[in-house]
Amino acid sequence: MLHSLKSVVLLLTLITISVVVSLYQALFTLNLFRDHSETFTSRQIAGALPKISGKGTHSTERRRGENGELEATTNYRDASWIDNKAEKSKSWLEDRTALELDSYRYLHHPETVNRTYDVWQTQQLRRKVLRETCDSLRDKHRLRKAEVPPSHLLVDDRHRFVFCEVRKVSSIAWRRVLDALASAYPAGHSVGGMGLRRLGTYSAHQRERRLSEYTKFLFVRDPMLRLVSGWRDKFLVGPQRHNYQSSWGAKIRGYSKHRARNNSSSDSVHGAQQLVLSSSAVEDQPVSFTEFVKYLTAGPPRSPLVRDMHWETYNSRCRPCLVRYDFVGHYETLGPDAAAILNALDGRRQGNGNLRFPAGRSDSLSVARQEFPKLASEDVVALAKLYDVDYELFGYSMSRFRNWLQNASTTK
Q1: Residues 216-225: pLDDT tens digits?
Q2: What's the predicted TM-score (pTM) here?
């Protein structure tokens, strides 16, 4: 009996020792696996990092692995997305540069347009820059969130096009051409003497369908040349100059006097001189370009003059990031661009095949050459800020404009 008891105790002891040894081996093996797993994860991340270019192009986070331990992981999707954005940004800058060079080359050497200009190849570049710039502006939250299509867009249902009329970009010539194009409309469908309708006269569904299905186009020019052309027409030589002078002359001069008084508090001599000059001005004397620019950039922000359609920004007037324009014409290539879009609509003209865009156009270079040197540097900076989005959207550049202006002056 005693012998049997000793045997049982010995057996239990051996079993206990066996269990302890097994547990120790299991824990040892688990630790080895854990160390190997963490080392592998670190190597995997280290090996991936050289493949990701640029600072901040990857993100590392901690998560629970299958073994319950925290592991480091890399968000490769975010890194790839940022790489793509960087590549797109580089391509966008290259496209913008190419477009800017073309624009100012044709401004400075208009005689080369017919020899070297490719309408449809340039259209691809202009639309690409426009779309990429719109994407960039959205990313930077520089566009209004609650945009609606402009109600003033001109619509021709018969020829299925939508046109954004921009004043001081051959707008009168375009109205005459489009009037001739739409002259076959039945009586009663005319708007403003033309066979056209404003987009705002349609229902929401009808507007959406036309913006989706019709050919949409607009014409633009360097914003500063358009600005000086608008000022010259409305305050200097145009048929409406007396109306603009009587409506805005006193307000603009009053603002100039107010600025002079403020300046006199910090610089009594200079301020007094400005005040004397402003006070001695005759009321019916045309508003100078300098006075006009100062009021436009630093005057009352809600002034109707700022929103006047003759110098309203392209972004505000045509909403090019909302309306997907199919054709973007430039003033410096007006002849071939106008011919191209009219030829594209040729199948819808019904007998107007001889329609041609007028060859003549105004040139604001001489006026710009006289007026821009009179502006103070802060006024030029203010103008660049006011029209910065327009410059970005359509492949123009304030710095290239000033360089072009200087080159044009030296070759006068």
Answers
A1: 999 999 999 9
A2: 0.72
